[in-house]
Amino acid sequence: MVKATVSGTVGALGDYLKEQRTQSRLSLRQLAEQAGVSNPYLSQIERGLRKPSAEVLQQIAKALRISAEQLYIRAGILSPDDGVGGSVELAVLGDTGLTERQKQSLLDVYASFLALNAADEALAPADSDEPGEADVSTALSDQ
After folding, report:
1. How confident is the model at residue 133 (pLDDT cuts 50, 70, 90)?
2. Between 3.40.120.10, 3.40.50.720, 1.10.260.40, 1.10.287.3610, what CATH number should domain 2-75 receive?
3. What is the band of 99 on the pLDDT scale with cuts at 50, 70, 90?
């Protein structure tokens, strides 16, 4: 079921990118050149066959002159429910000192903490304290 959601997200992203490209009156080749990606790779993204990295999405957004954050949401990198616009995620994604793998690892750990806290809130009585150090260690070992 998770795989269907991921492929659905990638497909929706591809449809959105194609729509934005055609509205900008750019050919696939022109957008690929402006974004610094190969023509076949961009075609695969548009057809929902590839999930691009945050860096590639940022390059495409810049070439299309649209919000990179909107592409991150459509790609499932950011959640639209993040109250402050996903400031943690945006900070990680915008850090040029990190590799793509490091960025993804940090985002995965952050998401696991959020999920752990949500689960704790659902199970704990209203007057409970914050999760203890053992809970954080458990969350890290699950990675």
Report:
1. low
2. 1.10.260.40
3. confident
Token reading at 63 = 């070439």
**pTM greater than the 0.85 cutoff:** no
CA-based nearest residue to 52, from 22, 89, 10: 10
| Tens-place pLDDT, residues 72-87 | 888 888 776 655 456 7
Give the per-residue SS3 of the chain: CHHHHHHHHHHHHHHHHHHHHHHCCCCHHHHHHHHCCCHHHHHHHHCCCCCCCHHHHHHHHHHHCCCHHHHHHHHCCCCCCCCCCCHHHHHHHHCCCCCHHHHHHHHHHHHHHHHHHHHHHHHCCCCCCCCCHHHHHHHHHCC
Q: How far apart are the first and last CA of the chain?
A: 21
